[in-house]
Amino acid sequence: MIRTRASTRGYTVAECSLPYIIVARMTRTLKASAAVIKDWTPVDAHYSAASFDLKLHGWSKERRFVVIREKERDEVDPVLRPGLHKVKL
Fold this sequence. Notes:
mainly beta, three-stranded antiparallel β-sheet, 1 helix
C-alpha cells in the first residue's frame, strides 16, 4: 500500500506519477470554469459529466478537473455531502 497526501510539503501524488483523485474546494475560479462548459456527457437520467484543464494559482502546470452535475428534481433533493455545494449553471 502506498500512502501519500495531496500536499505542497514533501512529495505529492503528482510528482510520484501516481493516478489520483482529489476533491477540490469550489472556488470562484472553479465555478466560473464549470459554468461555461457546453459539452456535457450524460451518465444516466439524472447526472452528466464534463472536464476541463486549469492551472490554479501557485501550480506549476494545468491539471484536469472532472465535474459532475445533477439535474434538479422536485421529488428528490440532490445528494449533498458536507463540503459540496449546489451550483445553478
